[in-house]
Amino acid sequence: MSDDHIKPINVAEELSKSFLDYSMSVIISRALPDVRDGLKPSQRRILFAMRELNLAPGKQHIKCAKICGDTSGNYHPHGESVIYPTLVNMGQKWSMRDTLIDGQGNFGSVEGDPPAAMRYTEARLTHLGMAMMDDLDKETVDFVPNYDERLTEPTVLPSAFPNFLVNGGTGIAVGMATNLASHNLGEVVDAICAQIDEPDIDLPGLMQYIKGPDFAVPTEIRGIRGIEDYFRTGRGSMRMRGKMEIEENENGRSMIIIREVPYGVNRATLQERIAELVNEKILTGISGMRDLSDEETRIEIELKRDARPQVVVNQLFKLTAMETSFSVNMLAIHQNRPKQLSLKEAIDAYIEHRREVVIRRTRYLLGKAEERAELLEAFLLALGHIDDFIKIIRESRNRDEARERLAAYSFPTKTAENLGILIRSQASVQGDRYVFSERQVNAILELRLYQLTGMEQDKVKGEYDGVLADITDLMDILAREVRVLGIIKDELRAIKDKYATPRKCPIVAEAGEVAMEDLIANDAMIVTLSHRGYVKRTPSSEYRLQGRGGKGLKGMETKATKKDEADDFVEHLFSVQAHDYLLFFTNTGRVYVERVYELPEGSRTSTGRSIKNVLDLKPEEKITALLRLERTVDEDGNDITFREGAGFVFFATRNGKVKKTALNDFRNYRKAGLTAINLEEGNDLIGVKLTSGEDEIILVTKNGLSIRFTEGVYKKPQGETEDGEETSDADTAAEGAEAEDDGTPQIRPQGRATAGVTGIRLGKDDEVVGMAIVTENSTLLVAAENGLGKRTDFKSYPYRRRGGKGVKTMNVTEKTGLVVSAVTVTAEDELMLMTSSGQSIRIRVGEIRETGRVAQGVKLLTLKEGEKLQDVSLVIPDGDDSQGGDATEGSGDVSGEPEADAAE
To answer: What is the pTM of this model?
Structure first.
């Protein structure tokens, strides 16, 4: 070599540049997963090779040696010995939360046993593994040449589910490493859909859906702070604990049963460590240990007679891997460079990836549809002038001549329009003539004789119309972003419905980061909301139990007692538990959700705080109805109040309209509120209930009328009602209600932004004031504004279709006043009555005598002059009730006052 080709270089600069190139090659091409599909190149190539081998679910397993050989020879030239462990890992149920490969044979064990040699094991793809490559043949991702440019391979997979978050993974690169936690598929899908609906959702909003990691094996996760850290920054650490139980054996000795070990802990190594601690006299309370594990962990540790089991349990947590930590570093390839990602950024990256996949797939399908439409146009034109075409073909000497003559043949564009053809390509139009393209000519020459029949012509026309409809739909998808995002959500929810599994790992807060529910006792509370919007919660125990007819206790100091203020009164009263949810429905048809313990607490006589300090109400909004929702949790303590199938929210309005909406539709509640029902001008909500979908409803009006109907399928009753009243279908049939029982529910579930259907037809100057649910062993309590009320058996109310005029439920007179409320009660229940001046009384329902449907009732409480009964609510007993009245404020029955029972 001549000296002209030798150039002096700086060794430090060259080493730096070369090492940087090497490290980036390792980072990008080998060690770190891509945030879009959560796969490293080796994993991606294995899955793609298995797809090329047609190893779909339901197909026969084939030898792993064949899979590894094809992967190595075609896409990943690093040797089968490094490919096989990657394949095995994707098929181990204790390593991946949702496996991508279905292995057959010895794939190792949770104790760390190695898998059998690849010539002995077999594999195929799982359903989720196949879902990673859905639509791969529809130009949804880029392909690049393989290492020797014989074949092409995808740079990323379409990833129909968020594998990056669901399965996690580990990787060690040059100067950096990644350690991703796995999460529950259903939770991740819900969070992605929520972020699509609300792009500005914050971390607490996302954590309503993704509670934290959910590993492949059951593990108790301790510590919420570490989860929040890695959700927010991409880095965080949490502790994991196994599960131990204390039992007694046949000899009466205590045993500790290890049921679960933390994720990533080797059971065999754990036992070796315990034995080592026993031999070193550190664990002195253990006398023996045996492993009875199969697919489920069961390690029995026998204790000495004088050992304290709980002390040994604590020692095992402290000294062994029964409690260990898991550090998360969400480092991945994002836009061709390594980046540490927060939860929201990872979800954003996946949404953008799926958005590109959907758009590219739609463009591909649109192109195919347009190509098919072009051919069908030619078929229709040819079949419409078949004699001319047969003549041209028969007079041609060969195929080439026939092709040339057909290419020169043309129609008036009017002829194409008369045949119902929508001319899509301007290239087919020359002046006012329609000419064939080369593809169309070739397609005509390929027509078979049976396609000339009339039935085949109709079939072609039907297919053509269908293709045009598909083209219109595909173009609409490309034109509207909301449709693309809707498709992403629908496809994710379909994956969730098919393959999501319940959470395996419960999450327990550590000391100092306990959830609010754990800090606040779930006591019975009374929530009051005044007409002017002052709200408070008061312990139920402050309201002492009194006898029927008492004067009551001061329940809320309303603004009517203050000078220079407009009159105020208690408009809503609810008996709840501190952990419950309250759904506040406004006059504009919106709903706001708040926890009871988050409401301001006040004494029995305090005014409370303005509701605008609690809820993010708009200036024109006013609370018109409330719904108490009891908090429910699953076995792991997770809040499942708004789960699917939890029931329906049933609405009743003042003008007699009713509606029901699935409770699950309110799960994504926000501080800014949600649309709950569409209300026309002048209409208000009067009641909201939680129903099962098959409940019977009673609506009660202020003039004392009522109607009983089912929200499910109407079944015509036989004979007369108990009180002998016969009501014809003409009197009770609803406008628009089904004339016959066709199996259709009377009240169909509707979305949140709907107005509902007719529940009762109201007379002049009448309005609905109460709604009750019919339940077994219960009665309907109806109360009037002058303090009278009564209980009546539900059997006295005839069962009818919705939309009728109704029957009498109370004999409304000047003595009773107008009806103000209706409640479903039992004899063991207790009621809270509230007057317009803020007085309250708590009484037992059993003291109210049961009467007929058209009676006036008995006195419930004594009212002052000008005072009216305002509201009635059931009280949740708290066990601290006083059995007498308050001597200073009045209690007991009013002597000398006859019970106001009216003759039926």
So the answer is: 0.59
